[in-house]
Design brief:
single chain; 68% helix
Amino acid sequence: MRPLPEVRGSTVAAEGKGDPAIRRVLPRGPQETRGNSRDRRSQILTNVSLLYVHLWVLEGAFRKWVPGLDDVFYVARDGLLVVCLLLVAMQYPAKEGRAKGTIFWTAVWAFGMFVGVQVMVEILDPIVAIAGLRNYIAPLLLIYVVWRNQLADFWSRATWILIIYAPIQAAIVVVQVLTPTSSYINAQVGGTEATFTTSGGIVRAAGTFSSALGLTTFVTLALAISLGVVMSGERGKRLAGAVVALFSCFLAIALGGSRGAILNAAIVIIAILLQQVFAGRRASFSRTLGVGALLLAGWTFVNITLTQVLVAFGTRFENASRSEDPLQRILVQTFGALAEQPRLLGEGAGAHSAFGINLGSAVPWVEDDYVRWVVELGLLGYILVFARLILAIAILATMIARVGQLHPVQVGTMTVLLMTLAFGSITSLPTTQGLFGICCAILISMSTDRSSVSTWGVDPEPKELSMDVRRH
């Protein structure tokens, strides 16, 4: 056997020289392959996106109950995404999805230029322009992260987060409606006591959100997801969690005193049950009976233990119905913006929003979201209103055409998104911005998940969701 060549330190390995036998046995250092980098990038962005969901639920609590954090958490959720996007882009640059990134950032740049023109022609104050940029861009940030990076794991983990938070919200709601307006748990942003009450002096509960509208958006989405999980054929812990969340949503809606929450819940339940009927799922009937029994149990519990709350909210509903026609309000919210006569450049992005007024805008607040688009953005706002209606019609057509293939969670989430586009709100408040972003992100993530979602409509019995609790 010939002698081995002399090895000086790690020079042989480093320079790739020497005997092949030595090179085979020398240890190799860790290598960052393209696949490992892509997986690491997806893992980081998934965790950041999930933190966005947590902040959507909890940011109101920090703003109300922790002194000094009001302004910080008003922008924390969106700021977190922007900073993490920049850091991840520098650490893990990716060629995949560059076309999507180009489309998104070009659209953001173009809108920024439009707002800049409004400032230059003195339509809009530069400080108020900050509100405009935030209101119209913030709802798209989470959508962009999930869309570009194809985060297939996001939907299962995000929906489980919302299921977990549902009973927590219900417990807080019960305490809020049973305690006086001056109690700490009923404090509003800025430390003031609750002012949004019924004729009986009972507080309109907001849960961990900064307003009652925030609670309405949460319970609507949480109910859609939990009902979708129940009707999808889940078993074990996941089914138990969804059942508890479903009961909690019924309880929070009954005590929340919101007509919108009741309407939203009714539409979601009808949509999912109709999908089960037309899809021909064999397990649907027994689970439908179970949902009905759960709804009856929740109503009975509230009616026996919290009668005074139901009476007060019943009086509020009667008074509101006499002063305002609910159907007319929905029609105005859906089509009212089309009757506006917009100025070419509008009156300034964010000028008529609550955020813009807080920053010094002198024009009045416009409540209806889509009317405000036309007033603030002019012709561009008019185009966005039409695009919103077209997207709503496309979602409805998809739900009808693919009724047998869609997962129940998809149906529930699409129903919430459809209501948001038709007569809801997207840009008015951080909570509505978050609802729109999370709904779209869940649907995009489910469309990229090739496990249980893509095959759900094929088998006679639905497969289990890929929501492994141990990962959370």
